[in-house]
């Protein structure tokens, strides 16, 4: 799987470090999960570049920097139950799966749901549970979660998602501002219904539908 890709991988990791990603756990997860298997044939030679790429259904796989940044912000120690909204290709979920106990991930496009399931099987990642459907209501049957990650942008994070987050839990996701720009925010629920909100940086995600 690797052979001639090793140099490209090393180059990407160096680049991510240069952009300020310093968590060695997160960087080694990025090194370990082969991004090329999530990318269509014609674009495979770009798999290890720090770019957003199409994954079908009009959707995109985020650039490694954003995946690394969001993963770092989730502050994972290994024992967490994480909810992801917007499985897409399954790449972000795969990165999470090597850093936490279990990932629950929801995708509204059937084709991508199937695609990601196949990837998880191929990679032998058995701690990811998937669902085809609308993620805006979260996953009440398995809540509460230690962490929630949104990989699609929304005007306002639905209250119900915060209700499904444990006290001490972290939610990371992009929010759409009035002028259509987006900002990545990190929330920590410091006590029940009380949040610390930190604005991280401007981002560009597909919208939650
Ligand atoms: N995390 C993905 C990238 C996600 S792109 C990866 O690593 O590849 C955002 C995804 O969110 C798209 O696949 C889109 O179909 C999905 N999405 C948008 N609105 C949604 C909703 N309401 N519920 C579930 N998934 C949604």
- CATH architecture name: 3-Layer(aba) Sandwich
CATH class: Alpha Beta
Gap between N and C termini: 35 Å
Number of helices: 6
How many structural domains are formed by the residues?
1
- CATH H-level superfamily title: Vaccinia Virus protein VP39
- What shape does the CA trace take? globular
Let me know the average pLDDT: 95
Commentary on this structure:
The chain has six helices and nine strands. With 209 residues, the protein is α/β, with parallel strands linked by helices. Strands 5-4-3-6-7-8-9 form a seven-stranded mixed beta sheet. The mean pLDDT is 95. Residues 55, 59-62, 85-86, 88-89, 91-92, 106-109, 112, 134-136, 151-152, 206, 208-209 line the site of S-adenosyl-L-homocysteine.
């Amino acid at each position: 799987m690797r052979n001639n890709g090793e140099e490209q991988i090393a180059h990407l990791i160096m680049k991510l470090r240069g952009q300020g990603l310093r968590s060695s756990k997160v960087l080694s997860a990025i090194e370990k999960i082969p991004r090329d298997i999530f990318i269509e044939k014609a674009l495979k030679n770009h798999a290890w570049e720090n770019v957003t790429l199409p994954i079908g259904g009009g959707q995109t796989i985020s650039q490694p920097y954003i995946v690394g940044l969001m993963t770092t912000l989730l502050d994972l120690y290994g024992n967490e139950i994480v909810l992801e909204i917007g499985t897409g290709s399954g790449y972000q979920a795969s990165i999470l799966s090597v850093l936490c106990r279990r990932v629950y991930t929801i995708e509204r496009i059937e084709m991508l749901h199937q695609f990601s399931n196949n990837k998880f099987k191929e990679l032998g990642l058995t701690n990811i549970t998937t669902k085809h459907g609308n993620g805006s209501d979260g996953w009440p049957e398995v809540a509460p979660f230690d962490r929630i990650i949104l990989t699609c942008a929304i005007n306002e994070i639905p209250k119900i998602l915060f209700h499904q987050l444990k006290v001490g839990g972290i939610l990371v996701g992009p929010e759409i501002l009035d002028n259509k720009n987006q900002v990545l925010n990190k929330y920590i629920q410091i006590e029940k219904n009380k949040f610390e909100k930190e604005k991280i940086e401007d981002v560009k995600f597909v919208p939650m539908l």
